[in-house]
Design a protein that fits this description.
mainly alpha, 2 domains, three-stranded mixed β-sheet, 3 strands
Length: 354
Amino acid sequence: MPHLPDLWQLTWNDLDPAGRSSVDPAGLAAIVRSLPPAAEVPPAGTDWRLTDFWYDQLTRALADRLGIWVAGWRYTSATDATGPYWRAERPPVTTPEETLGRFTDAVLAWHEVLTGFSEATWPVAASRRSHYPSHPRRLPHPSQLSWAEIDAVDFFDPDTVRTEAAAAVAATPPPARDADWRLVGHWLETVTVGFADRYGRWVVGWRWSTGEGDLDGGPIGNWCCFAHSATTPEATAEAIAASLLEWRDWLDELAERFDRYLPMAPGDLDGWERAVAHLITAVGDRTQYDSGWYGCCRTVLGWFLEAAGIELARRAELLTHAIGGRFQSWVEPPRMVVESVAETLARRVTVDRA
């Protein structure tokens, strides 16, 4: 399906109400209900990505009938303390009758909004900032996991992973490799939720790939992103299984590395310096110092602080003060920088206690 233009991409020639016939409410309602997507309204409670995709299909079908101006139907003008802005929001999906009715009303309202602009005023209006709704995540980013969640895994049978991955792909076949990002995201989340139900939330890191992959800057080499790693169902299941096992191996390796230094005696400045430098290097080697590697590094150091008993309220401040933007994508930091970060963090943990 062709991509629908964003509001700022629409020209006045696209939108000018004088360039089209008047919009009749009853006639518009009949047109909307005659469109093929109108017969496929998603059930109430459908994931937001799937409802968004359906709304785009409906919008594209209506645009083919009436013109691309309808692409702006989800925008309404609003004002706050900083001035006017565009609020983009699609109505909730309930019953087919209600959903199609709300869509029709929104298109009519958008038509009325456009009658208040002209060729001279539209460029300024189009440049307004836009506010888009946020959507809750069903699962956290791996950097949001606590070490307690990871370390609390009592039993994990790696021999079951390939069977589980094959079953997941068979139950929910992957979309086409060039499918809309929302369909891809929903599929990846569905697979991950299934793993989380089976093994625990720690599994969310299975696609935290090195470089500019799905989640950017992680330690996983067996999965890049859907476009590159999803091929045949069999090969895709194998890549997913290998990535989950690789993630578990990395977590177990971190636990072993933590145990080399913990527990640490209070005030052991040298011990903290050695531990932090060691972990920075371990993460860098694993992530290949690729795009965003410092995010994984910060996460691992945060887990180490947690494992060492440093209270949550201090961890972010300690890491921000120590790292302070000194790590960059695609760059292995000089040894003196690693040692400086390690010394700064160690001193604030053991001596300054700030």
